[in-house]
Amino acid sequence: MNDIAKILGVDLPFIQGGMGNISHASLAVAVSEAGGLGTIGAGTLAPEKVEQMILDIRRETSKPFAINIPLAIQPYVKDILTLIKKHQVPAVALSAGNPAPYIEPLKTDNVVVMCVVANEKQARKAEAAGADIVIAEGYEAAGINAKEELTTFTLLPKVASSVAIPVVAAGGIGDGRGVLAAMSLGAQGVQLGTRLIATKDAQVHPAYKEALCSAGSDGTMIVGRPYQQVRRILKTPYGQQLLDSEKEEIPLESYLEKTDESHHILGAIEGKLEEGHVNAGQISTMIEDIPTVQELFTRMIQEAQSSLKDISLPVHSQK
């Protein structure tokens, strides 16, 4: 059995990425019911909001799920950890900060701990601190990314060669071919974000989904480099406003205000693409339809199996 699936208690090694304050229980339930690991993001949410999502998930499914905690921006980390223990949440993904102080207490409560990493040094530190899984996320991924800006398929083999614990690939994956490629480079599972937004189960504004489906090869953009706040978003009127603000060299505080979760909600939930941003990974260029999560996962497995059969390598003989 696949190590990721075994550790997480799921059928498929497909993990939903954390989606910050636009997380919602229904999508996480759909992912878990389809055989993957549904995830809700703590974002900057208050503990009572996170708890309500946990209760909603528990009401709709008995299958495993996870909570993503972005340590650097979540103001109630200790309260979220208390909720995880209270409700016996099966798995946690720690990102955007040093996970070491939190790993041992989580494992004491029998929580599977995953750590999002951007380089092999972080991966080794996470493993040494007791993490069960590391998620190697390249900068093809949506949302906030590491300043190194390493691509997934550059980062992944380096991380896989650096640790003994299982590795999950994140960033730029949305079909079976991507799954197969990631596994050939050392991953045992994949994390999906943008591709799951473009599903019938995602409760985001239709304009967001439609924009993903119509995105071309240059459909995403990077903002925040001057502020060491690398973020990949969909190319929209508001995204251009952010770039213009960078050229004007607005203060960091003003930039952070323009890219906070309230603006994320304006774009993603309310569909106001001229007033708020929408996170999107480079996989957007490959999204052409809006299936259910179950349909997507079934197709991905079929694509991976078909692609594997089609691979033919020449035989090299030494003379």
How would you sum up this structure, described in words?
By secondary structure, the protein is an alpha/beta fold. It folds into 2 domains: 3-203 and 290-307, Aldolase class I (TIM Barrel, Alpha-Beta Barrel), CATH 3.20.20.70; 206-268, no CATH class. The protein is built from 14 helices and 11 strands. It has helices at 3-8, 25-33, 47-60, 77-86, 100-108, 120-128, 152-160, 176-184, 194-197, 206-214, 237-247, 252-258, 261-268, 293-310, and strands at residues 14-16, 38-41, 65-70, 91-95, 112-117, 133-137, 143-144, 167-170, 189-192, 220-223, 231-234. A hairpin with a 7-residue loop joins strand 10 (220-223) and strand 11. The radius of gyration is 19 Å and the shape is globular. The N and C termini lie far apart (40 Å). The mean pLDDT is 91.
Describe the structure concisely.
This protein has 319 residues and is an alpha/beta fold.
